[in-house]
Amino acid sequence: MARWHDIVDTAPDFAKTFLARLDAHTHKTLATLRKDGSPRISGIECWEAEGDLWFGSMARGVKARDLQRDPRFALHSGSGEPEGWSGDAKLSGRAEEITDPERKRVGFRQTDPVTGDSHLFRLEIDDAVLIGLNDERTLMVIEHWRPDGTVTRTERE
Q1: Which ranges of the chain would DSSP assign to H, the alpha helix?
Q2: Domain span including residue 69
Q3: Nearby residues of 65 by Cβ (< 8 Å), 6 or more positions away
Q4: Exposed, middle or buried, 139 (CB in 10 Å: 0-12/13-18/19+)?
Q5: Which of 1, 72, 73, 118 is deepest in the core (most CB within 10 A)?
Q6: Backbone angles phi, psi at 65, to 5 degrees
Q7: What's this model's pTM, rounded to 2 decimal places?
């Protein structure tokens, strides 16, 4: 399983565009699996720090409980309006819960000790996808990064 720094190391241009699209909107959409296997969609914030991507959850939040039971997730960036749309970023993988207080402090980007029971998750990445349009805005462009470091590009009408 890969981590964010693996994308940065193997495909720096892809990583730069990916992070720009991910950070274009504060709120992202996270998909997790409920106890019965059905999907759950939650709004979250995600950030890059220490060579990883992270997100948090309120204490005993349903998305945290989902991930503790089954760590698989899918994450989708926010998306702009069609006329000015610059593209989306998507990734999937597994979320590792961080419970060590010092690692939580670093992951939450805090200088003070972590207080409360908030959950912190570090993302392990199976694949990352950029979706956008070509320069003429006539074709859909899909770029797909895989853990072996390859990036494939597909253009579709």
Answers
A1: 4-10, 12-23, 62-69, 101-107
A2: 4-130
A3: none
A4: middle
A5: 73
A6: -65, -40
A7: 0.89
pLDDT value at residue 1: 85
Q: What is the CATH number of the domain that holds 74?
A: 2.30.110.10
Token look-up 């914030």 returns 45
- Which pLDDT does position 116 carry in this prediction? 65
| The pLDDT of residue 108 | 73
Tokens in use for 79? 């998306």
Number of domains in the chain: 1
Give 11's contacts (C-beta < 8 A, 6+ positions apart).
145, 149, 151
On whether residue 85 sits in a domain, the answer given is yes
Closest CA to 52 of 3, 125, 121, 87: 3
Kindly give the residue spans of alpha helices, DSSP state H, lying in 54-113.
Answer: 62-69, 101-107
Task: Give the contacts of 132 (CB within 8 A, at least 6 positions apart).
Answer: 21, 85, 86, 87, 88, 140, 141
pLDDT along the chain (157 residues), means of 10: 96 97 94 97 92 90 96 94 88 94 72 69 97 94 96 96
Specify if 14 maps to a domain.
yes
Is the residue at 135 inside a domain? no
Can you tell me whether residue 55 is helix, strand or coil? Answer: strand
